[in-house]
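Contributing: when you submit paired examples, paste them exactly as shown. First protein:
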Amino acid sequence: MLQMKQTLCRVMAVAILSLCAHSQSAHYSMLCSLTRESKNPAVSLAGIHLEIGVHARKASGIKISLSEGPRRIMILRDMSASMTGGNEQKLLLQAVKDFVELSPAIDQFALIDFSDKPHTQIDLQNADQFSKQLDDLESSKPPLPRGHTAIFDTIYAAASYLQKNPQEDDSILVITDGDDNASTVDLTKLKEYLLRSKIRLYLFVLSSPPVSPVQENKRPELMQLMVDTGGRLTGVASKTMLIEPNFDASPTTIALLRERVAALQYLIQKAYRIEFHLDAPLAKQTRLDTKLVTTDNKPAKGLQLLCPKYIYPN
């Protein structure tokens, strides 16, 4: 009888310790995009597993599953004075139209035009309604580029719009020449807001050279913000890359624009949900490292996982 009581006590102790350990662990999830660093479009996780590194924590129970939407995408269109050349407006409009046309009909889109301030032109709508409202906007009174460029302020405004009814699969797509010269938002707070909200930032850049030291410094900050959220950059360059850029709107460039818009749309749509447990909850912003490895524990060649670079306490 004594031996049975001792055995029962040991079993209960193990169960209690296990329950306590589980209660102290924390569950985290995020969306990531998988890309292949070659022109081969086939992307597969067959024979690949994911390693997650978090400072002073041990990750376990890692799960990967495909998450295909529906999505909500805020499209931010640069309408500042730097976009007043010959073909910029044509390329801006074409990029917006291509992105929506290539997306599933159940996705939702909103359009914010910005210069020194954001202006919501179209609230969140499905693809069909958005396209109709965009056509009406362009045919009735198309907006004219003017003023300075407040990209960071507009990103914050778009994130705030989405957070009225937050969803994990929200994204922001900025179509711009990449130069900010008017924002007042604190970049550290903006980064924290995006990462806490799990909003991914994507950039489509009509590339031209910076025209001032301030703009020169803002470009790396914008790129780093995109990388930190797990986003991606693409775009088309000006024909001459002079201070006064000459943007080419030839059929070849329009085709290239559509191809690169399609690449961004694919990354937003074909996301992977990563779920895992940490052995103890986080108390502050913490760096997150992810690595894809093969069954023999070697780096997976040619595959890149675009994930947020930081995670925050739940």
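Second protein:
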Amino acid sequence: MDYQSFQQEKQNFMAQPFGYREAAINELTAIDDTHYSIGGTIVELSDSVADDMDHHYGIMPQQSKNARKTFGDVGITHLRNFLGQAGKQDKRCLVLVADTSQRQVTRVLQTKEHLIPPTSFFDFAELFMDQNGYEPEALEYDMGTEISLRMRPNNPTYLPFAPNDEFMSNGLWLRWNPVEISFGNYYERLICKNGSTQISTHQMLHANSLNDSSISRLLAINSDNNILKHNTNVMLDNARLAMTTPASVHELGLASRALHLLGVEDEVVKVVPFEENYSRYEQAGFPTDAASQRRSISNITVWELFNRMTAFATHNEIWDTKNLKRSLLMSKSTDLLNQKRDIYEFNNIY
């Protein structure tokens, strides 16, 4: 992506209708579990968002259960509205993120300071690239509510970590939503001779505003070689361990769920053999509860699982090349690689 293409994509994003709205908690009126009124406008919530709303009102699960049991569905609705109005001095605001194609609120964010406009994000991104020697590599966005910018260094650093295998270690990314900017590094790995690559990402820090303090902190991150070096060493150690460690059935389940949460359906079994491995242990008479899944090895290594996830994120034809889901899956795959391994005691039927 050259600078002109970056500017065009920025304009494309800014031309979209922004699919979010800010509202104080006391401005919401609950109608039922999945419908709320905001200033006379009725909005529908997805089931997952509806389940999470009580948390924002400060209602504990047991309180919700008791209210519903004693007073029925109308009881919990009245409780939400009572707490919302009782907290008129509560300065917290929620950001309702909508899927405009579904006409439904699919995510709720809570502001910690002020909303961060996308124009501020783009201004900061250009300042960062100018001061630190980076150029835009890829810009992905989703429904006017999230942006992910991958930045490639003018002087990339390549590190070997296995025979005929190396990766670029000093790529950086910025991600925006209305309440937060997150920042991290990414690794670009050459996986075949025709130049095909895989990308994996790692978050380093985040900020809830773009004031002078947070801007200085974000601008300085590239000069802090200790952080980048630490992240790189952790990645190398975990990659080498993953090459010789079988993935547990539990770890396959985590990968499978990550794909499902991003809306992948039929292709999941082609990427992650969770169902196949789960069924084999079940048919062989082994317990398949969560603890047992951690002790049951699968027929692939953690490294192969990581490669499958990053390859799908990078090269699948389901998502548009600018779809933010690619970056989200890359982050999930790296999180899985870097988490503590399930390598204690294993049941092995292979």
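If you have annotations for the second protein, write them as plain sentences, like these:
The mean pLDDT is 83.
The first strand starts at residue 20 and ends at 24.
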